[in-house]
Amino acid sequence: xxxxxxxxxxxxxxxxxxxxxxxxxxxxxxxxxxxxxxxxxxxxxxxxxxxxxxxxxxxxxxxxxxxxxxxxxxxxxxxxxxxxxxxxxxxxxxxxxxxxxxxxxxxxxxxxxxxxxxxxxxxxxxxxxxxxxxxxxxxxxxxxxxxxxxxxxxxxxxxxxxxxxxxxxxxxxxxxxxxxxxxxxxxxxxxxxxxxxxxxxxxxxxxxxxxxxxxxxxxxxxxxxxxxxxxxxxxxxxxxxxxxxxxxxxxxxxxxxxxxxxxxxxxxxxxxxxxxxxxxxxxxxxxxxxxxxxxxxxxxxxxxxxxxxxxxxxxxxxxxxxxxxxxxxxxxxxxxxxxxxxxxxxxxxxxxxxxxxxxxxxxxxxxxxxxxxxxxxxxxxxxxxxxxxxxxxxxxxxxxxxxxxxxxxxxxxxxxxxxxxxxxxxxxxxxxxxxxxxxxxxxxxxxxxxxxxxxxxxxxxxxxxxxxxxxxxxxxxxxxxxxxxxxxxxxxxxxxxxxxxxxxxxxxxxxxxxxxxxxxxxxxxxxxxxxxxxxxxxxxxxxxxxxxxxxxxxxxxxxxxxxxxxxxxxxxxxxxxxxxxxxxxxxxxxxxxxxxxxxxxxxxxxxxxxxxxxxxxxxxxxx
Length: 623
Known about the structure:
alpha+beta, Alpha-Beta Plaits, Beta-Lactamase, 5-stranded mixed beta sheet
């Protein structure tokens, strides 16, 4: 008995064996390349490319087998049955095509199943071809080695399609092609090791058997077909690479035009990034690619949040600095046929600055930089609650500038604004961290301070002394009056506390300005009376409550009347005659003096005009 493996070295043509290996290599590489192209093609053209891949792969399996059989020379006459030889070719193409179709539908499981089917096609072709082998003897098979050959072909075939179709790189496709070569050759030589030829001179070769010369021609034809398909696959691969490179450059150009930083990650590793992301990361492109995303976004974990849901995080730069960013992650299903994530990163520094400025403007006065009314009221509310809990006291100081309106009218609003800023700067320099100064509006200011052992009164005196020490040459003289109210001594709520401090301020102004006064209970009635008087005075002209009386002016020597002095009187419906010494200062402070003055001029002129018609010479000197 002769075993094929035992006589491999001595009875095989090495050139034909090398040619078989070359054909197998070419066919395997072509099949993997065509399968890859089929996976990228549309639904209609996919089946065409699968059929071409099946022809290339099946022809390679068939040609490899019969080239190896032609290389074998056992020293016995041999031939091949026509029908079974053709059937072996059909088996190789059809079953390989079925396996390729299963693998091309996507997924590692289907790839493994398809590769196993291809391994079964290799076995079907091999043993159908061996059945077509006719020799003057008998073929005796080892069932164990036959089973092993089927397993070897199926396992390696499954591995070949899983690796070759799932790897996006040329290296991965080369590994897949190598595994397919091992599947074909491993099955063939294991299958050949399973057969033993028992010579028998009584066995004759049929006349219609295919002679080795004709088989060689058929194998050559199949090899040419493989070469043709390999060339087509090479052209397709080059065109696909060119198209992919063009698309990559186009997408990269679009990505670089985006304001946001964009990065593509696979399993948490950065595989691509645009210029904006590179600038944010502060690293070069070469250093960035291949780095884990967590190195730059440590607080971001895969699967955090949902797609298109923005998340805020800190981006750690290569130099160690941090940038507040907004991150959106989205899965990418068509990036190298493998799961990836696109990460969009938006720089939040400008937004944070804008938010900070908005927050500042919402809680501070734009002119002086002090806290505004809203901020002061919120702070006062918190301090009052804390005082209730701790059993402490706090004071509110209300102050405004004396004769501020006159400064505005005389020097202009720019000078008035400068005076307000100067006051805020000088008084603010006297306060500590526990105290708060705010501008409530116009020239009204308030100070919140803890009240212990007359601290508020001492602070007021320090403010007055500091303002009095300002040299006159520095601009308009800054003078202020201050009113003080203490919680909970003078009021039990915020509104009453501010009202009482305001009442104390009015008392300070009425008692000579440039002073400070602490609230007492008598001020409440006085303030209410004064405010009612202010209200009534605003309507005195429209209600015809004002009148002029005329005091004659006479010449002492002659006793003749030289003119009249117009004197203003207010006949209040409830208060009776109100003294000008009381209502004129109020009119000056509230601005009602302008309307009253205009009325006085009109009334005096009407009266003077009537006297002139009576041939009387009248001189109005004052009113």
